[in-house]
Amino acid sequence: YWMGAPFAGKGYMRAAVAALLPVAYDALGLHRVEAACMTTNHPSIHLLESLGFVREGVAREYLCINGAWEDHFLYGRLSGDSAGKPAVRAPGMSRTTASV
Known about the structure:
The chain has helices at 12-27, 42-50; strands at residues 32-38, 54-65, 68-78. With 100 residues, the protein is of the alpha+beta class.
């Protein structure tokens, strides 16, 4: 996902992702939804974790953005996961892990 700067921080993306999760699981029958975000993108980290996504690792130099290779956190959410549960991390992943 991506949100233009004038619309960021207004809850639009959270509402959109929250609305799409039931479609992914119920209508499409998916078992797993994945997301990746830059390790420095704190709003996206908060968004994903608030919706029950679990940080599963770091993909080093995952995407080339504006000419620079950027590390990304990898997140997953299973159909049985609840948005109300606090997000947990894979073993060895701390809240302060920025990049490897």
